[in-house]
């Protein structure tokens, strides 16, 4: 049983970072999930395996990950899961030392899973895996009085200062789910602040993407800041629960920030997008371009200032923000600067997630319906349809296996990792396999209330 106290242990050789006692943020104690077992496979020169699962008579979730292709000394992916119990807390009361309370009828209980893909080292991902769920618990407790009402009140105290208050809430179509979404957004922001304080205090650098799923009051909330992905694989459909945030997908937001605050570019970059890096011979000619307000393309007469390095440069997996980062949202990176400059990357890197909500009351969930969460190591080589095909085929062929969700997670990792052929890792179709760390959660959706 997860018992709401555990996360997943970290890759061997990494250390858990905690804020100094002077920090205004208090970390909860960390526990290993009861009943959790760890399986270690053989290590090769190009890959080291880590598989983990937790199985109880009611709740079964499965997790598998692999360190691939000597990308890094340690696995920069991190993961966490726990049960979160939310209680009403009176203003001014101190937090109990027992920071997650076992399920009781007087508490609202949810389940949480998260993946963190580190870059520049695993440190930011480790802090996030130890702290984001604590931030979520705190933010949910701050608004618990609103989410227990049929319609959230304007004032948590229940007062009605203006006669129009209830009408305002109704006209804005504010529901309990909107408060949960806001709590998740605030939790990501607070976790980002903690990471910034801790990384500065310990002279560390780096950041991470964050993908979190929360099952709460009959709804599934998936919050994403980065390029990891979550999909629901249902019997007859695929429901995307997140979208990747890359310099390309967020071009307009990034360009608009540079338009409003041009000093952030320090005269080293141009905010305009061109089909390629311009050269001196382009000056004076009209070339294709886009600005922050444009979905379409126009022509611009090239000036010398346009020869500067593009704010967003490259395409696909090669796209970079300020020539530095391949993602446009994530946690950490407070100390990151463009090489050989004083230009900070953080102002352009948003920590706020996009939250998608799935209401189970509106769907007929079948036995083999699952949520798949994975870092980009999986999605770099497998599309949604390919993953869904593997999921449906595997579960149909292994209905009697009590470990089938764990085996499915392992199967997906194996598919993306491929097989070693000579000095390369290849997929079955002879395309290159993933060379990134790969982490996968498989979470069954059936019989949720009993669990």
TrEMBL record:
Organism: Serinus canaria
A cellular component annotation (GO) from this entry: mitochondrion
Domain of life according to the entry: Eukaryota
InterPro entries tied to this protein: PP2C (IPR015655), PPM-type-like_dom_sf (IPR036457), PPM-type_phosphatase-like_dom (IPR001932)
CDD domains linked: PP2Cc
Positions with biased composition (Basic residues): 22-34
Protein name: Protein phosphatase, Mg2+/Mn2+ dependent 1M
Composition bias type Basic and acidic residues, residue spans: 1-13
One GO MF term: [pyruvate dehydrogenase (acetyl-transferring)]-phosphatase activity
